[in-house]
Amino acid sequence: xxxxxxxxxxxxxxxxxxxxxxxxxxxxxxxxxxxxxxxxxxxxxxxxxxxxxxxxxxxxxxxxxxxxxxxxxxxxxxxxxxxxxxxxxxxxxxxxxxxxxxxxxxxxxxxxxxxxxxxxxxxxxxxxxxxxxxxxxxxxxxxxxxxxxxxxxxxxxxxxxxxxxxxxxxxxxxxxxxxxxxxxxxxxxxxxxxxxxxxxxxxxxxxxxxxxxxxxxxxxxxxxxxxxxxxxxxxxxxxxxxxxx
Length: 245
Prior knowledge:
By secondary structure, this protein is an alpha/beta fold. It has two domains: 4-46 and 136-211, ATPase, nucleotide binding domain (Nucleotidyltransferase, domain 5); 49-127, Actin, Chain A, domain 4 (Alpha-Beta Complex), CATH 3.90.640.10. It has eleven helices and eight strands. The protein has helices at 4-10, 49-63, 74-84, 91-96, 119-122, 140-149, 153-160, 175-189, 208-217, 229-235, 238-244; strands at residues 17-22, 27-33, 36-37, 43-45, 104-107, 113-116, 163-166, 199-200. The strands form two sheets. Strands 1, 2, 3, 4, 7 and 8 form a six-stranded mixed sheet that branches. It has a two-stranded antiparallel ribbon with strand order 5-6. A hairpin with a 4-residue loop joins β1 (17-22) and β2. α1 (4-10) packs across α9 (208-217) and α6 packs across α8 (175-189). The model has no long low-confidence stretch (mean pLDDT 92). Residues 1-29 form the signal peptide. Keywords: Signal.
């Protein structure tokens, strides 16, 4: 019925820009111009929140051999990930220097206490380096750059002015700064130094798609797309395709 990328943009009041979504299942970088998605310039990364939760569990089991996966249920791991993990602005440097690991202990609520050290910033890193999970291909900042690069030159700057972050996996502390830093580096590296992407990272971006949908549905013009009971009874399910295609 609607593009999640477009609804994410709508949540900020924009109808043109680049939507960078990182949710539970996948990540996308989708250019939107005048309310229309450019599918040929859309890129997908099969690493997101659920993948990171499984990765965190594997990291914890590897670091604490006495732990079993049964002692780390999925819901508890997801809660731990949201509560304790963050994105490093200097991953290799932080990894080499134990003084920068910021260890913390957490109770899992089942009598099990877990200590996290480097796992706190290693967990979300595959969004930026999918190779950590054995996946080929670039991370989300490079895909965001490729999406802008594939757009016509006349539209590229306008879209770069509104790079909207959306989805729960963008809420890690440090995520927006790291993406901004690497996206600018991609522009410089590939000869687009004049292109200065501007990130829009609103506090409620974890629910950006829902927020955008509620805003669009509240517009007076949206009433033209309503389907009444009488219309459905007369035409049946094919009416959905006529209205929303």
